[in-house]
Structure formats: C-alpha cells, structure tokens
TrEMBL record:
Substrate binds at Q224, R226. Gene3D superfamilies: Nucleoside phosphorylase domain. It comes from Plakobranchus ocellatus. GO terms for biological process: nucleotide catabolic process; uridine catabolic process. This is Uridine phosphorylase. GO terms for cellular component: cytosol. Phosphate binds at R99, R143, I144, G145, T146. One of its GO terms (molecular function) is uridine phosphorylase activity. Residues 55-285 form the Nucleoside phosphorylase domain. PANTHER family: FI09636P-RELATED, URIDINE PHOSPHORYLASE.
Length: 318
C-alpha cells in the first residue's frame, strides 16, 4: 500500500447474537489494558457486572447536558437501583476525568464527547471496550446535540438519515499509520423510524422532528461556511453558494460528530443514531441569537425525544 493511498475498510466483526465483539485481535493479547481517558476500571468485576446490563449509550457534547439527561431518565423511568427519587444525582455510577464525564442510570450510560470527530472517536473507542469487557449485548448508541439548520428554524429536531463530509462524500475520514483512512458511514433506517415515531408520544410537548441528511464538518467556522472565524479565505458569495449546494444535496443540518459516530458504531456493529436540535438557521445567519432560557429550552428537545424512545423500549419489556 502506498503512503498516499486512501483505504476504505468495511471488515466488521461478525456477531450474530447481538453481543459486543470488537474487531481487534490485539486486545486479547495485551498484558495490561485500561481506559485511559474515562478511567472506568476495566478489570473490576463489580463494575463490569454493573455495566453488563447496559442497553443504551447516550452521548452528547457537554458533561452538563449528559448529567441532565441521566437525571431526567432516573426521574422519569425509575431506572436506578437507588429508588430515592428526591435525590438529584440518582446515578448507579458516575465518573469525571479532566476530559470526559459519564453517568450510569440502570441500563443507560450517558457520556459527554466534547467537540468534533477526534474527541468523539477517543471516547467511543473506550466506551466500546467497556461494553465488550462487561459482556453487553444489543446496545444502541444515540448522539444528542445541537446543530445549524439549513432552512430550518431553531427548535426543529433533526434525526440524521445520511451524512456528507468534506468533498460531499458519505465517508468518515480518519487515518491509520499516517495514511488516510475512509470508513463508510451507515445509518440504521429502522432506528431512525423508531425514534421519529416518538415525536408525538407525549401530549404536553409536541416535538417538531425532521428526518434528513447531515453535513459533518471538521470545524465550527470555515468548514461550516461561516464568515466570522479568525480568518476567512472566501467571499460572501462563496458562502451562499456552499449553503445552497448543501440544500440542493438534501442536507438539512450541519454539526461536527455524526460521521465518526455512525462510522465507528457500524465498524463494531452497534446500532446508532444522531439527533440534533437546530439553534440557528444558517440560511439566515452564522451566529445563534437565542437567549440563555431559549437555548436551554431548545437543548432539552433531543433529551426529551431520546427519553421517550428509551421509555417506549422499557414499556415494551425490552
Ligand atoms: C454542535 O455544537 C458544537 C459546536 O458548537 C459541536 O459539537 C457540534 O456538532
């Protein structure tokens, strides 16, 4: 293989019984292994037993949002071992490192991933290793987050039905051994349908949900066609042309992690989805202009949708 070549691999692990089985032959030969960034003990039998029942991993940018989700799930679904609902932090397990924070409530593990694909890739490698070590099976991964809308107003929740990255290709571009590596990004249409059907599950809050393609960018500024970064190498006309091209390609939102999440989950055969709420209509402006209250209201929509989805699963006795 030449140093310049781009490799596309789709050699997934074959796991027919739903158990998490990672496609890395080296793992079983290591003298010592640890989860360097999340620091959940990989060899503690009590911890692994506790994690063995995980069925949902929810990830999102900030520790605060993931903590809120874990608190909401604990409150509304009675999922924790500790039945004291008056306790705000009703978690079975929680960790905070310099990099990431995680909160486990019953069969749901909520973890923050920071900004961008490198950050989400690091935490996902470690979460996947934890799931395998704990002997988990039939796990669903859901990213919840915020995004820019293409012709969509703030408050619309987008469920990703396909991802385009730079070059308008449906691949996650990373690297291995100094060579570019392209991994296919796969969406699970059944999961998208299941999640979107939860939009009207609760009469109190009718969520405005749109299913559509996502553009996954490497950066918040130039990669997303903004004019307000510290430098900008293109004109306003170029920006309009890019945003129009996104729209004509069927893209309805822009964020920064979907390609890595869906490609890495596919690589280890974990079903996954991405749910992001629009905080700015990029066809109108670059900068979100919501008040703090509007922002926290809007940020709660993906949390509400994922809670309804998980609630449905447990009410079906899954
Ligand atoms: C949405 O919001 C973050 C940038 O502000 C990033 O993580 C994303 O995808």
């Amino acid at each position: 293989m030449s140093e310049k070549s781009t490799v596309t691999t789709d050699n997934n692990s074959a796991c027919t019984d739903g158990c998490v089985k990672l496609p890395n032959p080296h793992l079983s030969t290591l003298d010592h292994d640890a989860l360097f960034h999340i620091q959940v003990p990989l060899h503690d039998t009590d911890t692994l037993k506790d994690f063995s029942k995980i069925k949902f991993v929810c990830i999102g940018g900030t520790p605060g949002r993931m903590k809120l989700l874990a608190q909401k799930l604990a409150r509304e679904l009675n999922l924790t071992k500790c039945q004291d609902n008056s306790k705000e932090d009703n978690f079975d397990y929680a960790f905070t490192t310099e990099r990431y924070s995680g909160f486990k409530v019953g069969p749901v593990f909520c973890v923050n991933h920071g900004i961008g694909q490198p950050s989400v890739a690091v935490v996902l490698h470690e979460v996947f290793k934890l799931l395998q070590a704990a002997g988990c099976s039939n796990v669903t991964l859901i990213r919840i987050g915020t995004c820019g809308g293409i012709g969509l107003e703030p408050g619309t929740t987008v469920i990703t039905s396909g991802v385009l990255t730079a070059g308008f290709k449906e691949v996650y571009v990373t690297s291995a051994l100094g060579r570019p590596l392209e991994l296919p990004v796969k969406v699970d249409p059944e999961l998208v349908r299941e999640i979107s059907s939860c939009a009207s599950d609760n009469g109190n809050l009718d969520l405005k949900v749109k299913v559509g393609k996502t553009f996954c960018a490497e950066d918040f500024y130039q990669s997303q066609g903004r004019l307000d970064g510290s430098f900008c190498d293109y004109s306003k006309e170029d920006q309009i042309c890019f945003l129009n091209k996104l729209q004509s390609s069927g893209v309805c939102n822009i964020e920064m992690e979907s390609a890595a999440v869906l490609a890495l989950a596919h690589k280890v055969q974990i079903r996954a989805a991405v749910i992001c709420v629009v905080i700015v209509n990029r066809l109108k402006c670059d900068l979100p202009s919501l008040t703090a209250e509007e922002m926290s209201q809007i940020e709660s929509y993906p949390l509400e949708l994922v809670t309804r989805y998980i609630k449905r699963h447990f009410s079906k006795g899954d």
